[in-house]
Amino acid sequence: MSRRQPPNRGQQPINVVEIDSSDDEEEGATVVAPSKRSSSSDTKPKPKAQPQQNQNRSPEAIGLTQPTPNLQTLECRSFWKAGACVVGPTARTAPPPGELEHARVHPKFLHSNATSHKWAFGAIAELLDNAVDEIHNGATFVKVDKIDIMKDNSPALLFQDDGGGMDPDSIRKCMSLGYSSKKSNKTIGQYGNGFKTSTMRLGADVIVFSRASRASKATQSVGLLSYTFLRKTAQDDVIVPMIDFDISGHWAEPIIYSSHDDWSANLTTILEWSPFTSKDRLLEQFEDIGRHGTKIIIYNLWLNDEGIYELSFDDDDEDIRLRDEANRGGQTKLQKKIVELQSHISYRIRYSLRAYASILYLRKFTNFSILLRGKPLQQFNIADELKYLKTVTYRPQMGIMASKEVAAVETTIGFIKESPALGVCGFNVYHKNRLIRPFWKVTAEGSSKGNGVVGVLEANFIEPAHDKQDFERSSLFIRLEAKLKQILVDYWNHHCHLVGYQPPGFRAQNTEKKDSAKSQKQMPEEEVHLDQHVNDPHTCLPHTNNGLLGNGGRFNLPVEIPTTGFADAHNEVVNEDGQEAISVDQICEENIQLFMRCEEFRQKEMELKQMVTELERELEQEKRKRAQLAAHLETKRKQKMTKRQTEKVS
C-alpha cells in the first residue's frame, strides 16, 4: 500500500497582514471586505456583514507582499496537535479613535471548535448535508474528489454542487459562526456551525467559490478561511478575506464597498495564502460552476501521527479512505470469519467513504446524485436485504410539556442475509433522512442475544448532537433505547430458531426432561408402568424395543438439534436454595419491563401533578370570584342601608 508523504517545503517568510476587525458584534468571524461605498454613484446592493474600513491603504501599506511561489503551511500538521502550537506573540491592535471595543474570536477557537468531529468522515458528511439541503434550490449533484495543488503538488479535497449558490451576504454568514438560514423541518443543518467545524477538521485551510442570482443580479464571490494565515500572522481575531464580483454584464466587475485599495488588499491576501498564484487562476475556478453553485477546496490536509496524510487517495481510485482505520485489518493471515466480517458494510463504513456515504441517507434520491471521485454513488438500505422482516410501530411519549403529538415511528427489523455466520447486529437510527448512529448495539456487551439482528428507523423526535454522530442524552433518548431493547428481545424470542439459534428456555426444558428421566430410571420398572398406567389410562403399554420406554426404561423423547454451532450461550444465576436457575437475559427482560412500567407511572404522576395544578388554579379563580361576589353583596347591602336611612330622615 502506497503512502503519500506531504511535500517538503522550505521555510517561508512570515508577512504580517494588518487587517482591521469587524465591529459587528453579531458576526463570529471578521470578514475583510464590504463596509461603506466609495461613492454615491455605486448602485450595488450592500451585504449585511460590515467590517472595518481600510480606505486609502494600498496592499504594500498594510504589509502585504506579492504571493510566494510555494504554499505556506503550519509547522504542526497533525490535527490533534495543531491547537497547541506556539506561533509567537499575538498582534493586538487598539481600536481606532471613536470606535468601541468588541469581543473577539481567537483563531485557536477554529481548531478547538473543529475537535467536535472525532471522525473525519463525520466532517465530510456535514459538507454532503449542505449540498443535500440545496436540493430544494435545484441542486442535482454534489461532487467529492481529490485534486492536486499546483504550487507544491499536494492533495486537496474538492466539494462542488450546482445548488442555488451564495450571494455576498450569504457567503459571509457561511464563514461566520452561528448563522443558519435553514429554518425548514426538512433540512439537515440547523446550528450554523457545520461548515467551519467540518472544513477545519479536514484541513488547515479552505477557499470557497460561489455563484448566485438574487433579484435579477448575478454575483460571484471568493472567501478564504485560513488557519495557517491566522496563526502565522499572529492574528488575535478570525479574519476572512473576501472579494465579490458583479457578473450581470458581459464581464466580471469587482464590487467595491469601501475603497479599491481594500478590495486589492483582500485579493492579495487570498493569492498569497491560497493555492492560486494569480487573479486569472483564481477566476478560472468559476468556469465549471455554471450560472449557480458552490465549490469548496480544502487544502493543507491534516496528517496522522506518523506524518502521513490522514485521508488516503491511493488505495482505491474510486474511493477515499481513512488510512488508520483501513490499516487495522491489513494483516495477511486472518481467519475466514474475520475476513467475512471486515467485508461487511458495518465494518467497511469505518474506513471507506463510499461505503459510509452509501447508507448515509435513508431514502434514495430521485433527481440528485453523489459523485465520489468521478463515479456515481449507489445508495444502499440494509433493510432491503434483511430476512424474516418485521415492522414494529412505536409512538414516543413526549410528556405533558409537548406542544404537538409526534407521529408514530416504524422500525424495520430482521436478520442479515449472512446470519448466523456473522454476528453483526444493531440499529441504524436516522434523523431527517440522515444516518446518526450506525449499527447501534442496544444489548449488553458479551451477550449473544440479538446476533445477526439489524433494525432501521427514523427518529425525528430526538435531537442529534452537534457533530451528528450521536443523539443528545435526553429522557426521550433513554426511553427509545429501552424500547429498542424490548423490540429486539421480542423479535429474538420468536425468530431466533429460524436461523439456527436455540430458542430461549430450550436449555431449561432439556434439563427438566433429563431430571425427570433420571428420577424415573431410579424407580422400579413395574412401578413406573403402574404409575403411568394409573395416571393415564389412555396410555398404551410401553414397548420394550425402540418403544416409549426403551433403553432400560428411559423415555426416548425427541431432542431438537440446532442446525449451527452458534448456540445461544446464557449465563445463569442460581437462587440461594439452588433449585431454580434464572438466565441473565431473563433478568434483562424483567429490567426492561420494570423500566417501562416506571416510565408509565412517571407519566401518570406528571399528569396527576398537572391536574392538581389546574385544579388549584381553578380553585383560586373560584375564590377570587367568591370574594368579588361577597364584596359586591356587601356594597349592595350598604347602599340599601344608606337608602333606608335617607328615607327615614326625609
TrEMBL record:
All residue ranges annotated as the Morc S5 domain in the record: 351-492
Any one Gene Ontology cellular component term annotated for this protein: nucleus
Keywords: ATP-binding, Chromatin regulator, Coiled coil, DNA damage, DNA repair, Endonuclease, Hydrolase, Nuclease, Nucleotide-binding, Nucleus, RNA-binding, RNA-mediated gene silencing
Chain spans, region Disordered: 1-67, 507-529, 623-650
Record-linked InterPro entries: HATPase_C_sf (IPR036890), MORC_ATPase (IPR045261), Morc_S5 (IPR041006)
Biased composition (Basic and acidic residues): 510-529
GO molecular function, one term: ATP hydrolysis activity
GO BP terms, alphabetized: chromatin organization; DNA repair; positive regulation of defense response; regulatory ncRNA-mediated gene silencing
Cellular compartment(s): Nucleus
Names of the cofactor(s): Mn(2+)
Family named by the database record: Belongs to the MORC ATPase protein family.
Protein name (record): Morc S5 domain-containing protein
Source organism of the structure: Manihot esculenta (Cassava)
Source species taxonomy: Eukaryota, Viridiplantae, Streptophyta, Embryophyta, Tracheophyta
